Amino acid sequence: MKLIPFTPKGLVAAIVATSASIGFTTVTHAQSVDADQATQRSLEEVIVTATKRAQTLEDTPISITVTSAETIDTAKIQDILDLQSVVPSLRTSTDQSTSATSFFIRGFGNGANDVGTEPSVAVFVDGVYRSRTTASLGDFPKLERIEVIKGPQNTLFGKNASAGVVSMVTSKASFEREGYLEGIFGNYSSAIVKGYYTDALVDEKLAFSIGGSVNQRDGYAENVSGGNDIGERNRDNIRAELLFRPSKTQEWRLIVDHDDLDEICCYSANLVRGDIGDIIELLGGEIAAEAPYDYKVTANEDPSNIARNTGISLQGDIALNDTLTLTSITAYRQNQTRLFNDFDYTSADLTNATNELDINTFTQEIRLTSSFDGPFNFLVGAFYFDEEIDQETGIFYGDDFRDYVSFLAGQPFTFQSSIEEAIGIPVGTFHQGGQGTLDSGTMDNQSITVFGQVDYELTNRLTATIGLAYLDDSKEVTLSQVNTDVFSNINLGPELLPLQFLPQTLAFPNAVEDGETDDDNIDYTLRLTFAINDFVNVYGSFATGYKASSWVLANTSAPTEETLQQLFPGGVGRPFNQVVGTRFADPEEAEVFEIGLKTSFSTGYVNVALFDQTIENFQSNIFDGQGLVLANAEEQSVSGVEFDARWSPTASLDVIAALTYLDPEYNEFTGSILGDLSGTTPSNISDFASTVAVTYRFNLSGYEGYARVDWQYESAVDLRDGGSLNPENAILESVGHREREVNTFNASIGATLGRWDVSLWGRNIFNDEYLVAANPSAAQPGIFNGNPNQPATYGVSARLNF
Questions:
Q1: Which of 152, 421, 466, 681 has the most crowded Cβ, counting Cβ within 10 A?
Q2: Which sign does the torsion angle of CA 370, 376, 382, 383 carry?
Q3: DSSP code for 37
Q4: Is the pLDDT of residue 600 over 90?
Q5: What is the pLDDT of residue 153?
Q6: Per-residue confidence band for 36, with pLDDT thresholds at 50, 70 and 90
Q7: Is the distance from CB of 762 to CB of 74 less than 8 angstroms?
Q8: Number of CB atoms found within 10 A of residue 401's CB
Q9: 310-331 b/e (C-beta count within 10 Å ≥ 16 → b)
Q10: Is residue 603 classed as helix, strand or coil in its secondary structure?
């Protein structure tokens, strides 16, 4: 694009002229916040690969936000979960464990807690699909950029990208020696030490890089019942790369990485004490006050999160001639997760939950890309995915559970013994510590996607794009249970059914359920891009997306009523307390309309976006206190506006503003556990979100420095689905915890002193307080727990570059 001088008056004139010629237009992509050179007033050209080919950001006609390495450094973004502070269309959420982390784009997202539910937002690192969020939380010692691509992307990314893509790109190894060693120190005894080094092994042929980090921090929530502080960080990682260029037409990139996480996490606060709180105290236990931002916990055992990720990938780029490039990306990854959680969040020994998870994935992508000078260009490729999952989830009673149930029943210390004596079993049989359920689930998933995209220049200003993808996905699933809860498996009549918390899960495959799904679908993208003049582009597009069936691999898995009637004709042999529900959710089918305006000026840009996005059979999962219940919402939609602007009026000042307005709705959702939610607003999707960042660069006594402040705002939104139809919301509202509203400020100031970069930084500097999630507590009617955000953090950093 040709750059023209930027003035507010000129901008208004350009927008008015453009709107008059094309009507009010729409979709956008946000642009990188790389700072201009002090002596240059043109926006720096940014290369992205969102369309699987290198293009400038201005020439990429999709809705995309790019966060540069410089922004990540100056904003002191500590991990990928902080990325939402600079991308208002992206939201991240971590609930009761580190692995229970989800990404949401334009309000769509899922796949946090149940491994059988794959994410609607796909995460890629250097082109390699990370099938579960836990495999994406590690530090990256040399990031180049993070691309957040909005809307369905199946025609180019293939695997389960029905809501969008988060693509992280690391820097390649260099043939010129460079590196750094950095220390970051802050409150809560936070200490991060990271380093990176790259150099040539054989000039212009073979280079290597190696980097890693250690990240430690004390917990910020005090366990007043004598345990360790909760909310700590204890992570380390290492990443090595070989870059091989045997000729001018070939490049091979071999990457090996490993990261470990071993933390006491996460902080779950008491929101509603209820009458159960009195019973906990009668048992001699403690229950935290209804004050989540006091950051105090009463837990008789520390929650534990252990995760290990290891991976290897090989990417080859081969120029077949001057116009055709063949790319291959092969990867194998292993993930191990071990979780333990004090499931009742009190000092009484009531319930504990465990999870042992092993995931092995193999992916292979191959694509052919053209770069013709003429009007026609194409990309064709295929993506293969093979994943094996083994999971064991357990819920076990603690030593106080027997007495706890007797208080619930209104017969302190005599309830179980009276029943045991009446039916002739040994006194002390019911509700012993260690009794519970252990569910073992497996899933083997293979899928292949064949995709292609064609760009044709109809005129020198008008380009048409057609994309097509075919997906075939098959899953084989098993689930079995060992249930040692004697009380829940004896028919004691309907009066005692509410106290039978752990009924036997019906295993499958069985005579009716084969535990298999086989899905296929064709997705497409249609787009027109028109260059109105040398500095204004517009485009309009329609795209579809798809995510295959998801399964429940835990004790909330339950057969349908139709299945039970086939398994137990006439009800003969049917378990008395058999739960009716679902094993899996049908595939998601997404579609989105977008039209967009993208402008580029010598000192700024303004982009505006309008979109209308719908997902049919959205795979909703709601936590019911014991586990996630998976169900299809027949149709969920969101229409919205995205606005991004940058203004750099001088060489020293850079102002970024990004705003998002969303109007989400369950158009039809008749089968939720809360009843018919059709016409209600989905929880956790704010209708307005914004990010404003101001960076000022200065020169002091010959040293270059900067000062940055950014503000993140999200309007109030319900934490639980259902609105006024959900009685839980009334309970949470009575204690002031029904909604979340975000109003967070971050700041940093730094300078370059020769080879040293030093800075002071603070995140959430005014200690904004809000809840990430709120859920009913397990086996404790009326009690609600929530996950508050982190309190203010601050510190210093020093980096030695060499």
A1: 152
A2: positive
A3: P
A4: no
A5: 81
A6: very low
A7: no
A8: 28
A9: ebebbbbbeeeeeeebebebbb
A10: coil
In our burial notation (b when 16+ CB lie closer than 10 A, e otherwise), range 149-174 reads bbbbbbbbbbbbbbbbbbbbbbbbbb
Instruction: Map tokens 């569910």 to a residue.
Output: 439
Contact yes or no for 356/414 (Cβ under 8 A): no
What does the alpha-carbon distance between residue 7 and residue 459 come to, in Å, rounded to a whole number?
31
Q: Catalogue the E-assigned strands of 493-647.
A: 516-533, 536-547, 550-551, 584-585, 588-599, 604-623, 628-647
Count the Cβ atoms, other than its own, within 10 Å of residue 505: 23
Helix (H, G, I), strand (E, B) or coil at 566: helix
Amino acid at 285: G
Angle subtended at Cα 708 by Cα 40 and Cα 688, rounded to the nearest 5 degrees: 105
Task: Retrieve residue 604's tokens.
Answer: 């700024």
What is the torsion angle, in degrees rounded to the nearest 10, for the CA atoms of residue 645, residue 650, residue 654 and residue 659? -20
pLDDT of residue 2: 33
Cα separation, 637 vs 667, whole angstroms? 7
* Residue 722 tokens, joined: 């259902």
Report DSSP letters for 158-191, one per residue: -SS-SSEEEEEEEPPP-SS-EEEEEEEEETTTEE
**With 70 as the cut, is the pLDDT of residue 1 above it?**
no
CA separation for the pair 135, 259 (Å, rounded): 9
Q: Using CA atoms, how far apart are residues 732 and 724, in angstroms rounded to an integer?
A: 12
Taking alpha carbons only, the member of 126, 187, 110, 480 closest to residue 315 is: 126
Q: Give the confidence band of 467 by pLDDT, cuts at 50, 70, 90.
A: very high
How far is 485 from 555, CA to CA, in rounded Å? 13
Question: What tokens does 406 get?
Answer: 């007797």
Please say whether the beta carbons of 90 and 103 come within 8 A.
Answer: yes
- Residues 330, 127: contact at Cβ < 8 Å? no
Please tell me whether the overall predicted TM-score, pTM, comes out greater than 0.70 for this model.
yes
Q: How many CA atoms lie within 13 A of 211 on its CB side?
A: 26
Contact 615, 665 (CB under 8 A): no
Check residue 291 and report its DSSP letter.
-
Q: What is the pLDDT of residue 110?
A: 66
Candidates 398, 392, 381; CA nearest to 354 is 392
**CA–CA gap between residue 115 and residue 554 (Å, rounded):** 9
Those residues whose C-beta lies under 8 Å from the C-beta of residue 255, and which sit 6 or more positions away, are 126, 170, 239, 240, 241, 311, 312, 313, 314, 315
The pLDDT of residue 433 is 95
Cα distance between residue 231 and residue 296, in whole Å: 11
| Among the listed residues 251, 283, 50, 21, the one whose alpha carbon sits nearest the alpha carbon of residue 146 | 50
Instruction: Retrieve residue 487's tokens.
Output: 């009380």
Specify which residues 585 forms β-bridges with: 550
User: Does residue 717 contact residue 685 with C-beta atoms inside 8 Å?
Assistant: yes
Residue 84 pLDDT class (50, 70, 90 cuts)? confident
| 298 to 342, 408, 781, 784: CA distances (angstroms) | 10, 21, 18, 14
- 771/740 Cα distance (integer angstroms): 6
Give 335-355 pLDDT, tens digit per residue.
999 999 988 889 999 999 999
Cβ 333 vs Cβ 125: under 8 Å? no
Structure confidence at residue 587 (pLDDT): 93
